Amino acid sequence: MDEKRSDANFKDSQELKLVQLSEIQAEEVEWLWYPFIPFGKITLLQGDPGCGKTFLILKLIALLTRGLSLPECKGEPLPPFNVIYQTAEDGIADTIKPRLEQAGADCEKVFVIDESKNPLSFIDARIEKAIIQQKARLLILDPLQAYLGEMVDMNQSNKVRPQFARLAGIAERTGCSIILIGHLNKKEGTKDLYRALGSIDIAAAVRSVLLVTEAMENKGRKVLLQLKNNLAPMCPGIEFELGEAVHFLGYTDIPTETFLKGMEKLQEKSQAEKFNKALKRIPEILSEQSDLRMPSTEIIQRLVDEGIGKRTADKAKKELNILSAKEDNIWYWYLDHPAES
């Protein structure tokens, strides 16, 4: 194939337009909560399931809809404004509204886009319409994977980027702050600072990445850490307690890197425990079978149900020298002798 293309055969898909930077008016970043959450941008708030992300967000909504000061925030509080909260995990009537009321929110300023007939996604035109109609300054999508769209694989960069570009455009055009709530993944052995569920493009596409985790020296307390910030200097984490209400306790003295190293050590310890459990359970499960064998998919599912991941199961199989063979297009794991009791 000739690498040179003639002008006659080449057609521009779009008209070229160049803009000189001297023609662009510089703008300062506006902040919902400095330096954690900017207006007109996307923020990712992540943490393990049950770590307190939702309680934290609901407390922030309560403060913002009442025009009250946010933790460690200097200057005058923002005037009360409308918020749009979308969740695919908790019931609005029996969970979210009672928690918002308990947190002291003005529920007349909190709106939900009706998804009863049509599920919402990042590229849904209703998001921008709702923000404009209600003049909302904050939109929350919880969890983010529920709103990417059922045909989008979170692990494929080419599918994730256009979705986030669309959402970032909405944030920029409306000036609305968009917070995506995501669970940390369970990638075994990872040392990734983000561990965001899905493609690394998710963490790369947002301007601020926040993490909720356990406070190291104070059991029962949580800490909000900032892992990424493209728009302002990083600041220490903020500790808070969960109870009948969220209580903020000020900045932590422990550096963020220390928290992350502690999380890595806990993860490594957990994986070692799961590996040792797999070493014990695989022979036990196979010995339960009269012929000392089981389809690989079934034994892996048994282990997954017990909290042991497939990668750990495969590693333990190799360590144990468990045999495998294919029969009638089905792979089996089997023992050459019963496990010792």
What do you see in this structure?
This protein has helices at 53-65, 92-103, 125-134, 157-174, 200-205, 256-287, 296-305, 310-320, and strands at 31-33, 37-38, 42-47, 83-87, 110-111, 138-142, 177-183, 208-214, 221-229, 238-241, 247-251, 293-295, 323-327, 330-334. The N and C termini lie far apart (68 Å). It has two domains: 27-254, P-loop containing nucleotide triphosphate hydrolases (Rossmann fold); 262-334, no CATH class. It is an alpha/beta fold. Pfam families: AAA_25. This is AAA ATPase. InterPro entries: AAA+_ATPase (IPR003593), P-loop_NTPase (IPR027417).
Strand content: 15-25%
Our Rg estimate from Cα atoms comes to: 25 Å
Q: Provide the domain count.
A: 2
Cα shape: globular
Distance between the termini: 68 Å
Number of continuous helical runs: 8
Number of strands: 14
Strand order of the largest sheet: 5-4-6-7-3-8-9-10-11
Structural class label: alpha/beta
Give the second-level CATH assignment, the architecture of the largest domain: 3-Layer(aba) Sandwich
Helix content: 25-40%
Mean pLDDT figure: 84
Written as H for each helix and E for each strand, in order along the chain, the element string is: EEEHEHEHEHEHEEEEHEHHEE
Ranges with pLDDT <50 over ≥5 residues? 188-194
Main sheet characteristics? 9 strands, mixed
CATH-defined superfamily of the largest domain:
P-loop containing nucleotide triphosphate hydrolases
CATH-assigned fold name of the largest domain: Rossmann fold
CATH class of the largest domain: Alpha Beta
